[in-house]
């Protein structure tokens, strides 16, 4: 079994990974910055009620306000990633520590950005950084009706166990970047590049 190399990950101020979305457009994946608060508030305000429910398992804007406050409170241990394109946030992922080697992850994708691979790109970046920090397992509770998010975990290429429990699905995923995960990433990248050059076979 692979073990993390325990290297010190780069800081959020220095890492902004350029990525190609599924439609061929270019974005960046990076960690959250204090100056992002207005953009994060806009992101949550702009998504459909149904998407907020699948994210928080409840309705109402109060939970969103508490969550945004949590994201921008120092010392919580939460690590948050965003996908940004042309100054707009297309998605956000939270990594909440649960001990030394395990963390809970959750995602939200902006309206109009579904189908672009945003959640998958966030998962890949979060898993890479987590592995470097010694966090070997991601866990998540996903509503069974949230088919899009379940597909992200199933097809990202990481080793993952999904167990149905009534109306939700419990996910346990290794953050180790296996050859299958690397191959899945390469295939998605090649498909995205093809959208940039539709005449190239």
Task: State the gist of this model.
This protein has six helices and eight strands; from the N terminus they run ββαααβββαβαββα. With 201 residues, it is α+β, with helices and mostly antiparallel strands.
Largest sheet at a glance? Answer: 8 strands, mixed
Q: What order do the SSEs take from the amino end to the carboxyl end, as H and E?
A: EEHHHEEEHEHEEH
Helix percent reads 25-40%
Structural class based on helices, strands and sheet pairing: alpha+beta
Number of strands: 8
Radius of gyration: 16 Å
In percent terms, what proportion of residues is strand?
Answer: 25-35%
Shape: globular
Q: How many angstroms does the end-to-end distance come to?
A: 38 Å
What is the strand arrangement across the widest sheet?
Answer: 1-2-3-4-5-6-8-7
Number of helices: 6
Mean pLDDT: 91
Unreliable segments (pLDDT under 50, ≥5 consecutive)? 6-13
Provide structural commentary.
The protein is 35% helix and 28% strand. It has 201 residues and is α+β, with helices and mostly antiparallel strands. It has an eight-stranded mixed beta sheet, sandwiched between helices. Strand 4 and strand 5 form a beta hairpin. The protein starts with 15 loop residues before the first strand and ends in a 5-residue tail after the last helix. The model is unreliable at 6-13 (pLDDT under 50).
Lay out the secondary structure.
Blueprint: E1 16-20, E2 26-31, H1 37-46, H2 49-56, H3 62-71, E3 79-85, E4 88-97, E5 102-109, H4 118-133, E6 137-143, H5 147-155, E7 160-165, E8 168-174, H6 179-196
Parallel strand pairs: 5-6
Antiparallel strand pairs: 1-2, 2-3, 3-4, 4-5, 6-8, 7-8
